[in-house]
Amino acid sequence: MPNYQFSGVARDSSIRAIGSLFRHQQGSRWYVDVRFWPQQSKNSLSLANAPILSRNAALISGETAPRRGWRQDISIKNTTNWAVQKIKDCPINGSRARYDNDQFCFVFQNDGGLTVYLPQFELARALFFHDSYLACTSLTPAALALEFDTHIDKSGRSARITVMPSSGYPLKHFNDVHCREVLSWILLDDEARRSYESIGTNQLQHGFNDENYRRWNFRFTPPQIANGTFHVRGRFDPETQCLFVYEIDKIRGLKANVPEEVIFEHPDFKHPERVKGSGDAYPVEPFKDIEVEDDGSANADTSTIIIHSAGISIGFDNQFKTITLGVKTTASPHGEWDAEKSVDGKLVVSTEDPVQGGAFTSADWDNLNGPSDSSLFFENKFKCFMKMINELTWQHGCSIIDKNISKLPPFVRCKRYLLSSGGPRSIAAIILRSGDKEFHILEVDTSDGEKSLSTQLLRLKNPTTWLRDLENIKRRLVKGSLTWPTRTLGDLCGRDGYQGISHPQTSLANKGVLPPDSIARWAERFFEWMGRI
After folding, report:
1. Full-model pTM
2. Spatial separation of the C-alpha atoms in residues 193 and 201, rounded to whole Å
3. Which end of the chain is more exposed for a tag (fewer CB within 10 A), N or C?
4. Residue 78 and residue 55: Cα distance in Å, rounded?
5. End-to-end CA distance of the chain
6. What is the tens place of the pLDDT at every residue in 23-46?
7. What's the pLDDT tens digit per position in 179-211?
8. What is the dihedral of CA 531, 472, 484, 515, to 10 degrees?
């Protein structure tokens, strides 16, 4: 994750309030009224930066900042009966005095009688605003129809999405399975698309003009969500039994009315071809310091830089596969960093729509850095491992807090992120609770038998930085040719806070496949080690 900061915003600022949207009547660029802490002269950011705009978020350079607020999993039963109020209507002390008190919230009661005030901008950010394109395009209701042509075959099992050559959606996002899944959901699911396009419709209906600006208090119609879960952080007031949501960082149980297979096609799609001696077919951009020039324009002649930020994990309640069609080429799909655009060692970029003659390198956000339910495609690789985890819950009283299955990242000259078959190699990260202790368990897919790798049991010193730490472990695991980075694990857990636990014995004829009758003993060994670290 690169280090980033905004020009004109003090380093390590935090977002205190998110107000109305506005643009100059003679201009097309929308801004969000933002108040920072500490207080400073800059009081807005472009809507193109909406993916990282959440209340109380710390704009700490690149690092996954500790996420502030009271954590809560909220069960979503039915979004159609949500009430609409303003922040100033929230009974929590200080709500009426907030700078953004005129902004709209959805209001509903959770199980147990907790009243939730969920700012509408935050819900739209969590559902839709995962990159600059989706944030800015939302204000134009007909934009998706002009830039994407969708066709579902007669069987209803396959869809083809043609990306128009004039589309402004960055092609690099199609390299990310999570971006493809969310875009498929928005384009093909009637509820999701109706909700997304209601943003622009509401702006046209409820926005107003003053002397120089067009202004609008953000509001939209949520998609129907039944039996979903939001993991949120916010301010909880025990006296009023109210929760004001700052941020949604995980969504589970979204219904995706999408065919089993979604094919994206574009004349410029390029599938890189491995060349003998070239190492990794997907070179990784170097780690850089990035300064986002909020008021500048991006140059259309530069390769778009993707800025990954601490973000949102979305899980759909059904599986679907997304693929891209394009011609093979040996050219890199990532382009090169433009060293001439660096200032004081920082790469200066703009997240606005690229234009000819723009002053800065083009960039876009990607805040979908958590797993979606595409992980279910890899879960068959971990059947015995997951049986062992279930054994810990059934026989040893453990409880599963979280499950994360994702692909190992590609690196130049490193090939072990792929299975011997050429498919992606995945890693499972399970969070378990046993009594008053919390454990993190890591298991890598070695079903191809290329290498034996123990399962890691971790007791973290600081679990709040786990998302960042997991990404670091994955990178070092690949760079080390599937060797656990013990020095990193020691830093995270202390010398005696982690343990590698070997797999049960496998037969030579079925290398990489665990015998089912060994699961109970494997779980017993895990539980014994839980009592030691």
Report:
1. 0.69
2. 12
3. C
4. 25
5. 30
6. 999 999 999 999 999 999 999 999
7. 999 999 999 999 999 999 999 999 999 999 998
8. 70
